[in-house]
Each structure stands twice: as C-alpha cells, then as structure tokens.
Amino acid sequence: MSRITRKVVVGLIAACGALGAAVAPATAADYAPDEFIVLGEPNGHTKGAITWYNRTANIQGYVLDISDGGRSTRAIFEAFAGSTKIDSETRTTNNESDLGSKRSFNFTIGDTDLADGIDRIKITVCQQPPASGDGCSSPENYSKD
Prior knowledge:
Order of helices and strands: HEEEEEEEE
Radius of gyration: 22 Å
Structural class: mainly beta
CATH topology: Immunoglobulin-like
Largest sheet: 4 strands, antiparallel
Helix content: 10-25%
Number of domains: 1
CATH class: Mainly Beta
Distance between the termini: 50 Å
Number of strands: 8
Shape: elongated
CATH architecture: Sandwich
C-alpha cells in the first residue's frame, strides 16, 4: 500500500470514529435512575426503579397485593413524550392467586423509533374491585432529567 493510500485510509478511519462518537446514542449511564414507590388504596403498592435510555426506559421492580376478599392490585405504567401518551404496560397481582401476593417485573417501555423518545412515566396503582371510590392512587409522575 502506498504512503498516500495509507494516509487516506487512516484519515477515513479517524473521521468515522469521530462521527460515531458524536452521534452515539445515550446510554443508561447518561441518566440517573429514578426510584419509585406508589401506594395503592388501601392494600397494595408498587416499588422499583426507572432507568432512562435515549428513547425508552426500563422499569424494574414489583407490585404487591395484601388485600383479602378477591381484590387484586394493578400497577399502570404510562410513557409520554410531552403530553402525548406513547406506550403503556400493566402488571397485576392477587394475594389469593397461585402467583402469590408479590409479582416482580422488568420491562422496557417507549418507542425506539420516536425522535427524542419519551420524557415522562406516569405510575398509578389500582385495587380491583375498589374498596371505595375508583380504587386508584393519585398518579405519580417521573421525568427524565
């Protein structure tokens, strides 16, 4: 390989490396995880952490039901970009089911094709059927910093 060809190849490799570093997607380490606990009314809750990625988030934790009488506890996770709802996931457990009162979860929420991605997760915990009222907690919102 000639000296000029070698210089051109080395230059192209360096330029590609610099371009790759400039447009590399954000990783989980770029955002601090948000820990959460959302209490349901009256006998359940969800607890865990949200790890933010460039366009999505990973939610890991558990939902717990300690009710009697056939009620279940449902955690509802909704992902937003601004005020637009992009995605949602639910996890339900029942103290009287074969699964037990505590259900662990670990999932990704959002849309990998959405420019700028999601920036907020809303979490609500509901008892079904409700002991009173609508049976749901006040929603808790967690934003990507």
